[in-house]
Amino acid sequence: MTAATHSSSFPGGPASADSADAVLLGLDPEQREVATTLRGPVCVLAGAGTGKTRAITHRIAYGVRSGQLMPASVLAVTFTNRAAGEMRGRLRTLGAGGVQARTFHSAALRQLQYFWPKAVGGELPRLLERKIQFVAEAGARCRIRLDRNELRDVTGEIEWAKVTQTVPADYPVAALKSGREAPRDLAEIAQIYGTYEQLKRDRGMIDFEDVLLLTVGILQDRHDIAEQIRTQYQHFVVDEYQDVSPLQQRLLDLWLGERDSLCVVGDASQTIYSFTGATPDHLLNFRTRYPQATVVKLVRDYRSTPQVVHLANGLLNQAKGRAADHRLELISQRETGPDPVYAEYADEPAEAEGVARRIRDLIAAGVPAGEIAVLYRINAQSEVYEQALADAGVPYQLRGAERFFERQEVQKAILALRGAARSGGNDPLLDDVVELGSQVRAVLSSTGWSTEPPAGSGAVRDQWESLAALVRLAEDFARARPAATLADLTIELEERKAAQHAPTVQGVTLASLHAAKGLEWDAVFLVGLTDGMMPITYAKTDEQVEEERRLLYVGVTRARIHLSLSWGLSRAPGGRASRRPSRFLNGLRPGSAAPGAAAGSAAERGVRKRPRRGPALCRVCGKTLTEAGELKLMRCEDCPSDMDEGLYERLREWRAAQSQEQGLPAYCVFTDKTLMAIAEAAPSAEGELSMISGVGGRKLDRYGADVLAICAGQEVGAGHLDDA
Q1: According to DSSP H, which parts of 424-512 are helical?
Q2: Residue in 397, 422, 393 with CA at minimum distance from that of residue 407
Q3: Which of 158, 256, 439, 619 has its CA 20 to 30 A from that of 62?
Q4: For 98-112, 487-501, 527-541, which range has the lowest pLDDT when averaged over its residues?
């Protein structure tokens, strides 16, 4: 299953043209800059919906078509099989089919299988597909009883330890230092982890993390093998770079060697997998590591309407921390659409029924079921929506279920199509049937497809939806290639199967917010948005809460046109209405106050209201500003600063004292960029201070007097804010 898109599955254009410049047609100026910058390190900061996959696939294709890149010398790396499959499909369409596009694990496993006999000898140990069974056995051997949830969470801790290159003996200290919310005593987890590793060794098996670790080990120890790989792959493209773990970064460094032919693409505001060891630090530090890097920002959002983009930007405007300082202000390129809908319900079943009703109305209005998604924080929330949609007669599918090409009915259908293609005119099903779509419909009618879907939901409906997806795929294929035969279609299906590039199944998607990353729909329903679920209860630290905010941002930016945000005040009918809407919606949903808003309006407190502005321009060079840090400074980072250095240092000293006194990270008082903006503006009144980005009403009330005193050259005593 993949999310539907409005573009054809088989786009024409560049692939049919001979010139490299044809690949650049239709790219916006920033995407074009990405595509034509083929040498040296390149960092693409790409907001949601800005066409990053289009930019990097056209970059590779332009390099190949212009003769600047040899297809076999390029390795494009991403994080999911689906994304890698989509990339391979696009590259094939653009005439760059010889380029390798793989996940980190797939690329490493391929190298490990090839070089193991030479580096170690013998056959590569068998790959352990599901480690949870071994973890359960390890727990039993340690006489530690794990329930189902603990078993899953301990497995997650082992995976985190391995991608952060932490051995069992060091796990307790590393987990404490990282603030891990461990499911059991840290010493117990370390014991289970050690036993799990021993079990694998005893049985000659490796897991997916071992694939990366062993590849890293071989490349570190065997310089001849490392050089062989570097001779093969000379140019690297890494998608979703904000999700790279320390182990993956180490592998990438070994692939690169001393070279810098690297293009990375990412968005710090979409970092939502830190619990697996992912960190945006590599993305945020890229320009520090490669000072000569070309940095391109993609902020033109082609996916979502201005109304959806406005809400997404509003969410990030309230964000804190380092990733927030590098957020991108998206600019919608679509026509106006409906405002987001906020809905409050008495309880969870009422919310699910309300959502099902609205989905049924959308389908009746012409929105395909496959263009609608219901997204929730945890998988346990899906059941009530499955029931509500089934009761409403709406087809649905669970994201993360069996892969499309592995479904029994799909395999049977492809076999039938292959047989019909081989027999040609001798197949009675194809008598008097000439057009390709009609041929496919005729063949699939023998495997369970019909022109009308079966009533209700369940397995029969799921099977019909799979076959209907193949029919639509064949129709798209025939429109794009009028001369194509049934044999051509079976080749296309085999290539898609190898690439895991599945067609769209027409059913409402039910998925967790994490599973929805990288997908998009016309209509998105974000459900269960209560404090305790969004952010989740166990998000305790500022960093964890900010990741929850980014998770909601990812959910919002999945929507193209229709967006609904809802919550139930109690869990069950008749329950106490004790729940509250997510704090992330404060100041965004109608009737709610902004986070930390003080009593009374800005005018009542004598503070000037910040006016609505158009695009922010650098006050030095006049260039449009998009990055949050630059918006705070109101200038490009590279433009000369007129900052009062002495004032900046006094502000930093004051912030350090506040940080220590309140037990907060320094950036929670003011970020470096905000302090720089204050030092450049040197405000003399509360109204001037309030106009600086990063100084909201709460911080103005709490810190305003001190900051203005420092700007005026006055001394500020310790403990001045105890009563603020």
Answers
A1: 436-444, 459-480, 486-499
A2: 397
A3: 256
A4: 487-501
What's the rounded Cα separation, in Å, for the pair 580 and 529?
A: 9
Distance CA 583, CA 535 (A): 8
Which pair of tokens denotes residue 375? 């997204």
Per-residue pLDDT reduced to its tens digit, 191-226? 999 999 999 999 999 998 999 999 999 999 999 999
What tokens appear for 271 in the block? 């970092």
CA atoms within 13 A on the CB side of 217: 11
Beta bridge partners of 563: 524
Residue 367 has pLDDT above 80, yes or no: yes
Q: Tell me which residue has tokens 């960093």.
A: 543
Average of per-residue pLDDT across 83-92: 87
502 HSE (CA, 13 A, CB side): 22
Structure tokens at 560: 């193209």
Model's pTM, two decimal places? Answer: 0.68
Distance CA 302, CA 563 (A): 16
Calculate what percentage of the chain has a pLDDT beyond 70.
87
Count of positions (residues) in the chain: 724
Read off the tokens for 425: 């005119």
What confidence score (pLDDT) does residue 499 get?
57
Beta-bridged to residue 265, according to DSSP, are 44
Q: Taking a C-beta distance cutoff of 8 angstroms, is the pair 547, 274 a contact?
A: yes
Helix ranges (H only) for 25-169 are 29-36, 52-65, 81-93, 104-119, 132-141, 148-163
What count of other Cβ atoms lies within 10 Å of the Cβ of residue 445?
15
DSSP assignments along 681-717, one per residue:
H---SHHHHHTSTT--HHHHHHHHHHHHHHHTT----
Pick 687 or 508 by higher pLDDT.
508
The stretch 249-261 carries a mean pLDDT of: 93
Angle between helices 148-163 and 186-202 in degrees, nearest 10:
80
Question: Which residue(s) pair with 102 in the sheet?
Answer: 77
Tokens of 517: 């990353």
Name which of 255, 213, 215 is nearest 235 in CA terms.
Answer: 255
Residue partners of 538: CB distance under 8 A and separation at least 6:
181, 544
Per-residue pLDDT tens digits for 462-497: 677 788 888 888 888 888 888 888 888 888 888 777
On whether the CB atoms of residues 330 and 322 are closer than 8 A, the answer is no
Comparing 628 with 145, which gets the higher pLDDT? Answer: 145
Amino acid at residue number 660: Q
Looking at residue 582, its amino acid is S
What is the radius of gyration, based on Cα positions, of the chain? 28
At 314, which amino acid appears? G
pLDDT at site 500: 57
Strand partners, 627: 328
| Chain position carrying tokens 């959910």 | 555
**Is residue 278 within 8 Å of residue 271, measured between CB atoms?**
yes
From CA 209, how far away is CA 574, in angstroms rounded?
Answer: 47
d(CA 513, CA 277): 18
The single-letter code of the amino acid at 167 is V
pLDDT of 460 over the 80 cut: no
Tokens of 708: 């203005």
Question: How many Å apart are CA 115 and CA 228, to the nearest integer?
Answer: 10
Decide if pLDDT at 287 tops 70.
Answer: yes
Q: Measure the CA dihedral 296/297/300/304, to 10°.
A: 130
What span, in angstroms and rounded, lies between the C-alpha atoms of 240 and 279?
11
Which one-letter DSSP state was computed for residue 650? H
95 neighbors 61 (Cβ within 8 angstroms) = yes
Under the banding of pLDDT at 50, 70 and 90, the label for residue 706 is: very high
CB-CB contact of 259 with 234 (8 Å): yes
- SS3 of the chain: helix, strand, coil, percent, to 5: 50, 10, 40
User: Using CA atoms, how far apart are residues 151 and 184, in angstroms rounded to an integer?
Assistant: 10
pLDDT > 60? residue 723: no
